[in-house]
Amino acid sequence: xxxxxxxxxxxxxxxxxxxxxxxxxxxxxxxxxxxxxxxxxxxxxxxxxxxxxxxxxxxxxxxxxxxxxxxxxxxxxxxxxxxxxxxxxxxxxxxxxxxxxxxxxxxxxxxxxxxxxxxxxxxxxxxxxxxxxxxxxxxxxxxxxxxxxxxxxxxxxxxxxxxxxxxxxxxxxxxxxxxxxxxxxxxxxxxxxxxxxxxxxxxxxxxxxxxxxxxxxxxxxxxxxxxxxxxxxxxxxxxxxxxxxxxxxxxxxxxxxxxxxxxxxxxxxxxxxxxxxxxxxxxxxx
Length: 286
Prior knowledge:
The strands form 4 sheets. Strands 10-9-11-12-13-14 form a 6-stranded mixed sheet, sandwiched between helices. The radius of gyration is 20 Å and the shape is flat. The mean pLDDT is 84. It has 8 helices and 15 strands. The protein is of the alpha/beta class. It has 2 domains: 32-126, Ubiquitin-like (UB roll); 134-276, 3-Layer(aba) Sandwich (Cytidine Deaminase, domain 2), CATH 3.40.140. The chain has helices at residues 53-63, 123-126, 143-147, 149-155, 158-163, 190-203, 222-230, 244-253; strands spanning 2-9, 22-29, 32-38, 41-48, 73-78, 91-96, 110-111, 141-142, 167-173, 180-187, 212-216, 235-238, 256-259, 267-270, 275-276.
């Protein structure tokens, strides 16, 4: 998941004077293409951080509306790459149960690590039929527990500690005595990190993910709300801003959407009824 590179490091003082060049080694987050095949046929290529690739593919298939239960995905295996049959661990073939219908949407061959829906034919195609209904999840999330999730997520980010260059997604259960981290995944693509979490849950037979919170390290985009809804996750919390379309989709699908969760304050854009306030909240002037 990491690679080392030799670098030239420059430092400037307050007057703009250059200090002597130091030749060092830096640690970078790895980024490589992953080709996803379904029943041996090419389906999509995404840029990702290697690691938990089977979780990534499984979660991607959930996000595409292809599978909803672990039994529908019969096997995952690495295939030989295109370099004269060399095993690059960059091609994964997903075998589906014979009765599982293949998706109708058409994707471009390539999806970047910054966009989970690049190549989707239209916005209507993105609004896939939901297998699970987050709006029926009556979970109550203590406000103070929700506010503490970004710090819990950051404490568990091992790859970020080394590289400073990956996003993270953490799945929490907060209906017990304290927040419990069920799964954390890191990747150069924020949507990949979420797919890896959802894929882990699918392979563990945990879908739909009722009573959970998905905490992400970046912003809350349309595609992340979509992925949460398709996995039955009732609450999505982000440390940065949501988009207007993300807020619209959250309200439409019954997902509680939280943005700018910085530990001491947070904004709720949809689904406020799920947030329990064990003590009076302090009003912050607009």
